[in-house]
Amino acid sequence: MIEAVALTYGMLLSFVLTGASRNRKLERANPPMLNYIGYVLFGITCSVAMMAATYAAWGVISDSAAAI
Known about the structure:
Structural class: mainly alpha
Number of helices: 2
Number of strands: 0
Oligomer: single chain
Number of domains: 1
Distance between the termini: 18 Å
């Protein structure tokens, strides 16, 4: 299941970044849906990073050898 989520996330992120960079080169504004999806993906990325850092810090504090 996680593989499908990671693949979908990667494809969406690739699409958003490619579209945004293409629009920047052509000096056009991004469509609102592209901005919205980009902000959602950014929020998901930040949330997962914070959860991973919290999990790692909790492992250090509680002296448990947990592999991420």
